[in-house]
Write a structure and sequence with these properties.
A two-stranded parallel ribbon has the order 1-2. The chain has 24 helices and two strands. The termini are far apart. It is an all-alpha fold. The radius of gyration is 23 Å and the shape is globular. It has one domain.
């Protein structure tokens, strides 16, 4: 199937989301249209293909491990909230804060420590820090920006977060695997680790947040909010104050160890499991540290076991400390499943759609034929970043965008270079392109007014959601421009090696980000005086 109708399903997905604001409905329409087009408009053949793709998703044990991991992590998040560990950690940090700058910095630090999941970070930090930011007249929109910026943009950079199974699973679906019959022969987890430094938007938006707080940078609609807050005490940009409460139960008798110990165990369990399954020398295997990670093909099993072990330990530990009552376990598991149910359903549909895009419609091949000779390869990372960001803004989800864009991107670059299976070192643009997909997905989700994390951050901070989205967009502009410049540089210097590519792209992006922040801040102060 190599003609223009193969592009209809992606556009139908985006259009449906735009009209209905329902991603799962859009994915279903995309799946049905993709199956119909790929079988040359035969209803019976389309139904047969759909049945085959659904069975593939149900029967592949790695995907079942991934879904179980998400459920266990969701339950662990609820448990950490229930025992009060997250709240105790936040209270320990905020006890001696004496200024607005210190409080804003603390919100960034607390969010950074809750790296395991963006939902946990969003929900916990705003609820705990809000009384302090109110005391120092920090606008609620500013608080929402701070906790939102340190949620999903940070979590995607951490290889032990709730995102890692999704990312490695989508890389595997896109054609990156140790299986010799795929497009790129490599362990998905190792490729994810190598891609982390190229997730430029996350890096620059976190850098921006710290610079804004530590240097008291203020501009755009947020500056107006801050002026109103300092002059009148109104923390809502002059609007009627609102009071919203956290939906999740928060324990009041927890201690810092109730949060720290489970996180440490999860991190140690994951890396110990990966090294053991990868044949690390300390466990009697033949491989060094990097090779053990690189040659591991049991990633999903390791995440499943590590999360199950951590959750079991946390339950026993909480029970022994009397911060957990066993009759409440049923509710905790139910809420944990509920927290991740939407993500699991979305990933299931997205995986089927991704398989249809890659294996049946071969959209990447079609785009490669269109772009071959018409678009310079060095421009692809910047182009993919912008396209992924637009998709995420429209759909309101980073996970859905990654599931949509990864199969197309991997197939596109491998089709432009070769029809045969390749190793990562043979594709100079691989890491910048993957970083562009991840960056664009996080960027679009970060600034989208319909994103779950946008609404969650606003709710946690007690801000109007549209005020949060509007003020945050202007603070995201320097990071967006910096990431675009970084991917543009990376595209041109990629043939010179990973170190040169990463260093020059980062320097160019960082200079762009800091310069824009300085100019916008200087202009605002100049016009306000």
């Amino acid at each position: 199937m190599q003609n223009w109708p193969v592009l209809l399903p992606p556009f139908l997905v985006l259009g449906t989301v735009l009209i209905t604001q329902n991603l799962n409905r859009a994915f279903i329409i995309g799946i049905l249209s993709a199956a119909f087009i790929s079988t040359h408009y035969s209803v019976s053949a389309a139904l047969s293909l759909l049945a085959h793709r659904v069975i593939d998703q149900i029967c592949v044990v790695d995907y079942l491990y991934m879904y179980a991991f998400l459920i266990f992590i969701g339950t662990l998040i609820i448990l950490l909230s229930y025992t009060g560990g997250a709240r105790a950690f936040a209270n320990a940090i905020t006890k001696h804060l004496k200024s607005a700058k210190a409080v804003e910095t603390a919100s960034l630090v607390i969010s950074a420590f809750l790296f395991i999941d963006d939902y946990l970070s969003n929900l916990t930090v705003g609820y705990v820090i809000r009384p302090l930011t109110d005391r120092f007249h920090v606008p609620r929109a500013k608080l929402a920006y701070l906790i939102h910026t340190m949620s999903s943009p940070l979590v995607i950079l951490i290889p032990v977060s709730s995102w890692v199974a999704m990312i490695t699973g989508q890389l595997n679906l896109a054609g990156i695997s140790t299986d010799s019959h795929v497009r790129i022969i490599a362990d998905p987890f190792f490729i994810y680790l190598a891609t982390i430094p190229f997730i430029f938007y996350s890096i620059f938006t976190i850098l921006s947040a710290f610079l804004i707080v530590r240097n008291k940078i203020s501009y755009g609609p947020m500056h107006i909010q801050e002026v109103i807050a300092s002059q009148s005490g109104n923390l809502f940009g002059g609007k009627t104050p609102i009071a919203q409460h956290l939906a999740m139960h928060e324990g009041t008798h927890g201690r810092v160890i109730d949060l720290v110990l489970p996180l440490v165990i999860l991190i140690v369990s994951i890396f110990a499991g990966l090294l053991f399954m990868g044949g690390f020398t300390l466990f009697g295997g033949p491989n060094g540290f990097i090779d053990a990670l690189k040659n591991n093909n049991h990633t999903f099993f390791v995440f499943f076991i590590a999360s199950a072990f951590t959750l079991a330990f946390s339950i026993l530990f909480s029970y022994s400390r009397k911060t957990l009552h066993l009759p409440h376990l049923k509710t905790i598991f139910a809420q944990g499943f509920g927290l991740m149910k939407g993500a699991i359903i979305m990933l299931f549909f997205a995986s089927i759609l991704g398989a249809l895009f890659k294996q049946d419609l071969q959209i990447g091949n079609y785009l490669a034929n269109l772009l071959y000779g018409a678009t310079a390869l060095p421009l692809l990372p910047c182009f993919i970043f912008i396209l992924s960001a637009l998709v995420a803004i429209i759909t309101g989800t980073s996970w859905g965008t990654i599931a949509l864009m990864l199969p197309i991107t991997v197939q596109l670059i491998t089709s432009l270079l070769s029809k045969q299976a390749l190793y990562p070192e043979q594709i100079a643009l691989l890491l910048p392109l993957l970083g562009a997909v991840f960056s664009g997905a996080v960027c679009g989700d970060h600034v989208s007014p319909i994103s779950e994390t946008t609404i969650m951050a606003a709710t946690s901070a007690g801000s109007y959601p549209l005020d949060h989205a509007y003020t945050q967009f202007f603070y995201a502009i320097p990071a967006i421009a910096a990431a675009a410049i970084a991917f543009l540089i990376a595209g041109f210097v990629a043939p010179y090696g990973t170190f040169i590519t990463l260093s020059t792209a980062f320097i160019g992006g960082a200079i762009t980000c800091m310069t824009l922040l300085y100019l916008l801040n200087h202009y605002t102060k100049h016009t306000s005086s």
